[in-house]
Each structure stands twice: as structure tokens, then as C-alpha cells.
Design brief:
The chain is mainly alpha-helical. The protein has four helices and two strands, in the order αββααα. Strand 1 and strand 2 form a beta hairpin. Keywords: Membrane, Transmembrane, Transmembrane helix.
Length: 104
């Protein structure tokens, strides 16, 4: 076995972090896109739902929705995000135990 094969560890050159998530300043890019896309989507939905004379509703709806999106992508106690913990509580079965620990 030559030096090059020893460096590669016979794993065919596949890096360990092939399933790593893209981050920017320590925040997942998916979370950033969700938080930035929420006001755009809710503004479009709000203009279709609310009548044109309800301008306060059209302005407040995207703001509240953005705060809700930020809350849902924040990490909670145990390492999971808030929306993951809400989903775990909604699908909780009486005889099924789901761990809240990080890494599950």
C-alpha cells in the first residue's frame, strides 16, 4: 500500500462531510431562506386575503408571520428546532417513546 492510498483510507475519496448542511455565519441557509421568504410570501397572500382598505392588516400580517417563522426555526432545549418539537408533541403516541436529545 503506497502513501496515497494510506491518506485516502480506502474510502474512494468521499469526504466525511458529504451530508453536511450549508451554513452562513453559523446559521443554516435553509433557515435563512425560510425567514427571508416568509415576508414575501405572506405579503402576496395578505394582499389577496384582505381588502384594499384594510392596510393595517396587510402590513401587520407579514410582520407577525416573520416573527413566528423566526421563533419556529430557533433551537429549543435539547438541540431540536421549535417546529420539530411541536411536531413531536403532535404525533406523540402513548406507547411510543421519542427522544428529545440532540442527534436523534
Amino acid at each position: 500500500m503506497n502513501n496515497n492510498e494510506n491518506k485516502m483510507g480506502n474510502d474512494y475519496g468521499i469526504p466525511r462531510d458529504i451530508y453536511a448542511h450549508a451554513k452562513y455565519l453559523g446559521v443554516l441557509l435553509v433557515d435563512i431562506l425560510i425567514v427571508l421568504g416568509t415576508p414575501l410570501v405572506t405579503f402576496v397572500i395578505g394582499t389577496n386575503i384582505f381588502p384594499p382598505n384594510a392596510i393595517t392588516h396587510i402590513i401587520v400580517f407579514p410582520i407577525i408571520s416573520t416573527f413566528l417563522a423566526v421563533y419556529l426555526v430557533l433551537p429549543a432545549n435539547g438541540g431540536k428546532k421549535n417546529f420539530n418539537q411541536i411536531m413531536l408533541n403532535l404525533r406523540r403516541h402513548r406507547f411510543l417513546w421519542i427522544s428529545f436529545e440532540k442527534g436523534d
